[in-house]
Fold these 2 entries.
Entry 1:
Amino acid sequence: MSKGVMPVSRIIGLGVGIPETVLSNADLEKMVDTSDEWITSRTGIKERRIMKKGERTSDYCIKAAREALAEANVDPLELDAIILATISGDMRFPATSVFVQEAIGAKNAAAWDVSATCSGFLFALYNADTLIQAGRAKKILVIGSEMLTSMVNWDDRATCVLFGDAAGAVVLTKAEDDRGILSIAIGSNGSYVDLLYSIGIGTASRTGGTENGEAFLFMNGNEVFRHAVRMLERTAVEVVHKAGLQPSDIDWLIPHQANTRIIKATAERMGLPMEQVFLNIHKYGNTSSASVPLAMYEARKEGKLKDGQLMLSVVFGGGFTWGGMVVRF
Ligand SMILES: CC(C)(COP(=O)(O)OP(=O)(O)OC[C@H]1O[C@@H](n2cnc3c(N)ncnc32)[C@H](O)[C@@H]1OP(=O)(O)O)[C@@H](O)C(=O)NCCC(=O)NCCS
């Protein structure tokens, strides 16, 4: 008998869509008053990928979706739903997920987007896991994709160095054995909207926000950092216990890749050595809702996250929003 509770749903395919264009710290040194040393020591980021002009968020979602469906050996017509987490979609409407639906030919799927900033993938997965538990869906495509370089202020060195573009997708189905999502939790607290937000296209813009030079992404990094560390630990403890496990049972911590220092603090608080933490932030920066599926994908491809192993994932983002899950692969 394996440890922990039995899962409801299981990830049977993973895919990614990653822009080709690399923007290194050396490139950023030519754009704003910064240095590779500052960015590396404060964040762990060495380079990030950025989308080209004329490309769309859905281009990368479609690529990720096709790869995930191929690994899962699932025909798009079998999909009951496509749930896409993004705050940087193709258009204000329709939802970016419908462009994915059309491109892959998932005619039987309902498609909708979820907005929960960097926690979006966990929120979308929570939706999907719940639908499967309720018997309302059998196979669901869940995507996390963000093209935040399209909304950062390239004159603001405190934020423009942090973000990168990517998409990640998973195919979810009913669990049949002890492999799958053992526990999943999400949460929000609207008291902290002032610490991390973006205006410029919403109705809030009409009250003059853009005149204050805040048309793009705004963040109070220090305060976000402080809250992130606290909430990530709290969520990690919650989902590990919900899964019927102890932190010492976890094989891999695969957290939202926002800042290496935040990740180290979380691992330390959970008593997990850094050898059990998967990091790819140095290659991609903070890809927001794409970060967890992208990290899971690479951890699997690199042969680190093996079949039967237990993964703990925790995320945090603007809102604030947060989430966590324990998965047995
Ligand atoms: C953004 C972050 C890396 C900044 O690191 P920090 O150690 O808190 O740095 P501070 O904001 O205190 O800034 C320290 C100094 O560096 C400067 N600075 C900011 N960005 C810089 C950059 N890119 N290059 C060089 N200097 C920079 C600041 O202007 C400040 O200078 P000052 O002391 O002369 O005023 C950090 O706060 C962070 O990671 N926060 C969480 C961000 C996050 O994860 N957000 C997403 C959540 S999903």
Note: The chain has two domains: 9-176, 181-192+219-328.
Entry 2:
Amino acid sequence: MIINKFRAFLANQLGFPKGWFGKLLIRFLNRNNAVMNNLALQNLNLQAGDRVLEIGFGGGYLIEQIANTHLPQIIVGAEQSQDAIEICKQKFRTQINKSEIELHLADATELPFTDRAFDKICTVNTIYFWADLSKVFTECHRVLTENGKLLISYNSKDFLSKQKFAEHGFIGYEVAEIEASLKLAGFINVTTITGNSDRHQEFFCTSATAHLGN
Ligand SMILES: C[S@@+](CC[C@H](N)C(=O)[O-])C[C@H]1O[C@@H](n2cnc3c(N)ncnc32)[C@H](O)[C@@H]1O
């Protein structure tokens, strides 16, 4: 009973870290999710001058790895948790002052950016909290340039149900569901690779290219 209550609380915090527990959790996530974020970075195919958006950056681990490549012109983060923003504002204050990093309080379903503002978008361990994938993917498509790349890294549905998070609001998606939803939103070249780690077992990295049509 107590374990179940804690699991529900944890699931809620993972989706929207808040308060002192959320701040601790954000720091833990940086270590816990490093392997998934590293695979995302490897497959983002960053180029010099890229404008990069990360949605749901949590503790900022991936933003830091991207910044360390010194390739992008700018890295923008969109995150719904004010506490995550505050932590990352401190962490990246030097780059923020130099306008190399921007952090926005924003929801993935309503990105506060102009059309075609980014060359790359990445998001890791976030889709479980999105009941309407098509809304988010349509927004991503809108803010990507023609041939811009979206990369999503996520745990398997099977792993989420073994962890019992599915009972507390996490949505586990099959790879085929993600791929179909991306194609419906207008993406092409949709491909998925599989990663492995002791913590996450099998996980996935799906990438897709924005195609604006005729
Ligand atoms: C489980 S954490 C993952 C953090 C980081 N990406 C990682 O892999 O460690 C999920 C993060 O996504 C954010 N998030 C979830 N839904 C969001 C939404 N609709 N818009 C913006 N951020 C969202 C949460 O606030 C949280 O910081």
Note: The first strand starts at residue 51 and ends at 55.
